[in-house]
Input
Amino acid sequence: MKYIFCLCVSFFFAVNTMYAQYKKTTYTSEKLGEDREIIFHIPENYDAKKKYPLIVVLDADYLFETVMAASGFYTYNDEMPESIIVGIRQENSRLSDCNYNEDTGFPKDKGNNFFEFIGMELLPSLADEYNLADFRIIIGHGLTANFINYYLFKDRPLFDAYVNIAPTFAPNVTDYLTSRLSTLTIQKFYYLITSDKNRDAENAARIEELHQSLQAIDNDQLHYNFSIVEDSDNYTVAAHAIPRSLYGIFDLYQPIPPEEYEKEVLSYEEGIVYDYLENKYNAIHGTYDVDKKIRLNDVMAIYAACLEKEDLPSLESLGKLGKKEFPDTMLGYFFEAEFHEKSGNTKKAMRTYEKAFLMSEIDFLTKDMVQERIFNIKKDMGW
Output
């Protein structure tokens, strides 16, 4: 129900932003020897100095709006970074685009040309036009879900995340996938989503067999996720699969939720608790190749952990961070003052609280709170 609700809300959001961010163009492909209609979603406030993950959508004639809507909702709620979404319409060329050799299962004829069109023409032209992050997602459904897997078999796979929605696999591809994903040396996300009312019993059995093989793989570089969507068929599954997969792929990017705070932050023992925050944002950059400003939500989560764990070194580090990331607010000075107070340096604490009092309020930190801290210190010192 959560994902259905999110999707409904995201569609509402998309309707209100679609016209500012949605455009179509015709791309003349030498590889295909024809013009192809491409659909773009570029963030409304696109900044050439920022990097943007790329999402490539096959079957864009019916999947694109769902991807754009889900992405818009998650971006609005700061659960995934702003991304560039590019869709390839295939309503009149789907079969030929995805043509494969019945013996090997690999692309042939126009299928091979379509494979090269994406990798050798479309992606390089996008990189020339936009500042793309080194994180790419590709999404396909049915026959195109099978097709996206071919990019995994390159020495350096073109995409970092593969969303396979109710795939219709070519011969041998499932065997190739098990072997390839077992030997990954760089991090990849692989999502396999199917319906509980798959109309093709043979293909449903192949998906289940692949799942059994993939879940047995012991490879830290593989982030594998499998789900069966209840009360869906081969078509309606796409509306569920897209928001689910995007939410999962960008799990690391999202704010620290209560569950993570309880299970991971409070039990963190690889250093001071401040290191958890630093490691999280380093991992965001390392995984998605985006520079994410540290959220106030995450700072406050670490602050709460500092108090609960009586971790004064982390409190001191938060003071320095607050001055750097929230320079016009009292955040940094408040943390620094509390560090001095808890360390027994009350005079320095009072002077620092006085500096905090002159700054802007933020979150639950108010001038009244700071003034009360100053009053209590003076009272304790007999002033």
